[in-house]
Amino acid sequence: MTVLHIRDFEIHSGYFAPDAQQKLVAELRGILGKAPLLQPVTPRGTPMSVRMSAAGTYGWISDRKGYRYEPQHPFGTPWPQIPGVLLAMWQNLVPDARAPECCLINWYHSEAKMGMHQDKDEADLSQPVVSVSLGDEALFRMGNTTRGGKTESVWLRSGDVVVMAKAARHAYHGIDRIRPNSSTLLPKGGRINLTLRVVT
Ligand code: MD3
Ligand code: FE
After folding, report:
1. In CATH, what number is assigned to the domain containing residue 105?
2. 82-114 burial string, b = 16+ CB within 10 Å, else e?
3. Of all protein residues, whose CA lies closest to atom 23 belonging to ligand 1?
4. Which of 78, 103, 129, 168 could be joined to 8 by an S-S link, Cβ 3.0–4.6 Å?
5. pLDDT higher than 90, residue 8
6. Ligand 1: which residue has its CA nearest to atom 14?
7. How many angstroms does the Cα of residue 174 sit away from the middle of ligand 2?
């Protein structure tokens, strides 16, 4: 396990070993059985390429009405609990933070991407965000606290964990592309990203 600092982003490469990744995927299957992945649309009605679900007290929702956190899946059921291994990771990496209230689950097929954006739907932006990558590698682009300017990119691999605190918490970021078939973790390929956030 090595830690890389790029600006205020802290990348723990290989935080989860292959066996821990497999266990996490098995837990996610249980969660997604109860709270299925759905394809969100933007407030303008454009479908996103990423499919989403969540665990925890709140899940992040995007639809015609806007972006927000909701205490239930669109099907009307509460979100499943955040896996203990992720709560332990949060405690280990950001011990001074409040407890995470959302574990957003993003699933990327081989062509999926996520445009540059800021995460600012949370009430307390002084709290960090921690993300876990599973499955195929992804080209993660890190920008600035305002749109535009120079960016830096890094390939995130299965088992990597990124901590966003301080300036990084306010930075524009996105996923340019996935490297298909770069991991054998997920039988059908693709990438899962988990982001833990404090919402309230
Ligand atoms: C920087 N997800 O769900 S994870 C997102 O790989 C999101 O699915 C990407 O951006 C993904 O909002 C990138 C890294 C990440 C997550 C949250 C952040 C970077 C962040 C919040 C604030 C700043
Ligand atoms: Fe984001």
Report:
1. 2.60.120.590
2. bbeebbebbeebbeebeebbbbbbbbbeeebeb
3. 169
4. 168
5. no
6. 131
7. 7
